[in-house]
Amino acid sequence: MATLLDGRSLARTLREQLQAEAEAWSRLSGQVPTIALLRAGADEALLSHARSVRRTFERAGFGFQEIELPADSDTEAVIAEVCRLNGERSVHGILIQEPLPAHVDQNAVVEALNPLKDVDGVHPLNAGRLLQQRGRYHVSSTPLGGITLLEHYGISFQGALAVVVGRSNIVGKPLALLLLHRHATVVVCHSRTKELAELTRQADILCVAVGRAGLITGEMVKPGATVVDFGINFVDGRLVGDVDFDSAAERAGAITPVPGGTGPVTAAMLLHNTLQAARWLGERGEDNAA
Description:
- By secondary structure, the protein is an alpha/beta fold.
- It folds into two domains: 28-122, 3-Layer(aba) Sandwich (Rossmann fold); 141-262, NAD(P)-binding Rossmann-like Domain (Rossmann fold).
- It contains ten helices and eleven strands.
- A six-stranded parallel beta sheet has the order 1-11-8-7-5-6, with helices on both faces. It has a three-stranded parallel beta sheet with strand order 3-2-4, with helices on both faces. It has a two-stranded antiparallel sheet with strand order 9-10.
- Helix 1 (7-29) runs parallel beside helix 10, helix 6 runs parallel beside helix 7 and helix 6 crosses helix 10 (262-284).
- The longest helix has 23 residues, at 7-29.
- The radius of gyration is 19 Å and the shape is globular.
- The chain starts with a strand and ends in a 6-residue tail after the last helix.
């Protein structure tokens, strides 16, 4: 049976460390590191995510704001709210909850973000700096959490064949870069990939982030491989990942459970990025404008 990569215990440790760092920063600055979640509409999945983020931030003594615009808000209205938050000195991080309504230009909204406040690393400036490893930049909390979990358990990256299933801007692509920066050999698979199972069976590190429950089965896993499941799917009222856990755990050397694997560490990384943003903004002494 595979070793469980327990994200809950690591997240507790990280949260305690970040809470202590945030308290020290607050004593010096007179501010509380604060995130603002912005969404348009009241989709239940977004509300559930917001509740989870709120619990994480309030438990760690961080500030939390939640802004919900009407579902029929146009692009200009959403951008106007982003610009307001850019200039709000009490807000250090901004998280735009996706998906936005189909009629809203998501790219335009993202580009309106102050990159220093873009705590999920979606702004093109942050994405480009991650690519080139240049300057200061935020990295999306989900892939950063996955890498942090693997590092905690001593998983070796150098020379390993890492197969990433999924190519989203928020998980798959930044994860591939983080693995590449750690000297893994990286293959990115997606919906047009032919013979997916042939590729996944070669992976020393198999990372899956597509949003399809049970996509990866045990027979698609190399014996002894490390399997990292970023999937969030509800099946018959139960939270499951993109990996069929029972069959994959029989072949893998190590595997993340769902729930309790990458999710808790993702939340801790959002705390990390918000505190990082607060420090950067404070060092610059700027008015938080873009």
